[in-house]
UniProtKB/TrEMBL annotation:
Family: Belongs to the glycosyl hydrolase 32 family.
Gene Ontology process terms (BP): sucrose catabolic process
Residue span(s) of domain Glycosyl hydrolase family 32 N-terminal: 29-362
Keyword Signal: yes
GO CC annotation, single: cytoplasm
SUPFAM superfamilies in the cross-refs: Arabinanase/levansucrase/invertase, Concanavalin A-like lectins/glucanases
UniProt protein name: Fructan beta-fructosidase
Superkingdom of origin organism: Bacteria
An MF annotation (GO) of this entry: sucrose alpha-glucosidase activity
Length: 520
């Protein structure tokens, strides 16, 4: 019989002190007050303020047949807007960008799809002044969506630090290219060439454009045709530099992140990345095309972007993703809103001898927020099993010591009866897996097979940081070498759990005590 070292985590899913309207809303993850959201857009930090724009719709726009979308359905896209000074507490601002309507009708024209925001410090665009440099949003306009549609790129600007936005009268700055996938521009200043660079989705690859002024663009290259392997079309590209130190030397590499609609570890939607070199026109992958790197191995991290910092920081980059999956995003069991973001994550570039990889961890402000809900657990020769009780909001840090004879390590989240989210580590295969199929609170129609990733213990230990927040679990394994992001929707109040001991017998645990959720 295989030796099992196990730990069970119990999460109380519902409390009498939580109102029904709050049961489906996460505590420390961003959600809109109401309405639908998906991709994060225009992430920029300016003057100590983090700006989050996002795909947003809150109802009230007519479709061609005269019907109106309800407020929690995907509809004619706007850009919502929120600001924060700590990436935890958010102030929701007025809608930044609205789609247009055809003159004399209520039909939508020019839906505001994804894009980015830059601070034009030297007023290269002429849309502000050197005294009041403009923020410039570069985004995709789409009249229709689907086969046969076309998409174009446009800009808007603000001279009051992002509160009021005006569309550029000369739009579009890049016209239709007669393809369905020509969208999600990310723009940044490339100092070495003294030009703006745009990286944009072109279906089975990304395309690069250069501009002196954000208005006039010229295509200069592309990347991806030889790298496809899995996952097309590509969406929501992000390109940024990071420093990495290895063998006593520090070098700067470029990281290209793309979201893909097929072929991810869970079977469909996911986010992959490349590490290489970029000269303003050409990206060269440092790895072989067969070396596919995934930013997250769960089902619910997509369309992620990173914040453009106000000052140069080549050691870290803060990322944010949409915590959902198009396979079931439109049917999630929420009420006033639909869609949420992951926790902001600090990215760093590492090298382990076999190649480069991104390590991720929750930003310090998130960990500080959870300090009073933090539980540390150690499993080793003297502690072969443990049981803990926690509320729906928690940070759990697990340290598994791999001992001789250990074959498999297991623990369970949100366990009640035969329902649980199971996490297991197979020592012989160096493989961690996550399985939410036995959880009946909400049946995910697709992307619900067990998830797995290869993870090698560090100095004989496997560490897992688990962030629980009412309807989600985010796992950071071995200092963020591997991450899993998954939505979880509890069905009933969880009252008890059990522990699998080292010999495989089950030990009963007393009913859990109620625990207060973290205050908003």
């Amino acid at each position: 019989m295989k030796k099992l070292l196990a730990i069970a985590f119990l999460g109380l899913s519902l409390f009498s002190s939580i109102t029904p309207a709050a049961q489906d809303r996460p505590d420390y993850h961003f959600t809109p007050h109401s309405g639908w959201i998906n991709d994060p857009n225009g992430l920029i930090e300016s003057g100590g303020v983090y700006h989050l724009f996002y795909q947003f719709y809150d109802g009230g726009w007519a479709l061609k047949d005269g019907r109106f979308k309800s407020s929690t359905e995907w509809g004619p896209m706007h850009w919502g807007h929120a600001t924060s000074t700590d990436l935890v507490h958010w102030h929701q601002m007025p809608i930044a960008l609205y789609p247009d309507k055809k003159i004399g009708t209520s039909e939508v024209q020019g839906m505001i799809f994804s894009g980015s925001v830059v601070l034009d410090r030297d007023n290269t665009s002429g849309l502000g002044s050197k005294q009041r440099p403009p923020m410039v949003a570069v985004y995709t306009e789409a009249d229709t969506f689907g086969p046969g549609s076309g998409q174009r790129q446009a800009i808007a600007y603000s001279v009051d630090n992002g509160t009021v936005w005006k569309k550029y009268a000369g739009n579009p700055v890049l016209p239709y290219n007669n393809t369905e996938t020509f969208r999600d521009p990310q723009v940044f200043w490339f100092g070495a060439a003294n030009k703006w660079v745009m990286v944009i989705s072109c279906g089975d690859r990304v395309c690069f454009y250069n501009s002196p002024d954000l208005k006039h663009w010229a295509e200069v290259g592309d990347f991806g045709k030889a790298e496809v392997g899995v996952g097309v079309p590509w969406e929501c590209p992000d390109l940024f530099p990071l420093q990495v130190t290895h063998d006593g030397k520090t070098e700067t590499k470029w990281v290209l992140v793309v979201s893909v609609q097929h072929g991810a570890p869970t079977g469909s939607f996911g986010t992959r990345y490349f590490v290489g070199d970029f000269d303003g026109k050409t990206f060269k992958n440092s790895a072989l095309p067969s070396d596919v790197k995934w930013l997250d191995y769960g089902s619910d991290y997509y369309a992620g972007r990173t914040w453009t910092p106000s000052r140069s920081d080549l050691k870290h980059r803060i990322a944010l993703g949409w915590m959902a999956n198009w396979s079931y995003a439109k049917t999630l069991p929420t009420t006033r809103y639909r869609g949420s973001m992951t926790v902001p994550r600090e990215l760093s570039l590492q090298y382990d001898g076999s190649g480069y990889y991104l390590a991720q961890r929750p930003v310090p402000s998130v960990q500080k927020r959870l300090n009073s809900h933090k539980i540390d657990v150690r499993i080793d020769d003297s502690h072969k099993s443990q049981s803990i009780t926690t509320g729906t909001v928690a940070q759990i840090n697990v340290d598994f010591k791999i001992t001789p004879g250990s074959n498999k390590l297991e623990f369970e989240l949100f366990k009640t009866g035969q329902q649980q989210v199971s996490i297991a580590y197979d020592v012989t295969k160096s493989e961690i897996s996550v399985d939410r199929r036995n959880y009946a609170g909400y049946r995910f129609k697709t992307d619900d097979s067990p998830q797995s990733a290869h993870v090698v213990p560090q100095n004989g230990h496997l560490t897992i940081q688990a962030l629980l927040d009412r309807n989600s679990v985010e796992l950071f394994v071995n200092d963020g070498r591997v991450t899993f992001t998954n939505l979880i929707y509890p069905e009933d109040t969880l009252t008890q759990t059990s522990v699998i001991s080292a010999t495989g017998s089950r030990l009963p645990v007393s009913p859990a005590q109620k625990s207060s959720a973290l205050a908003p």
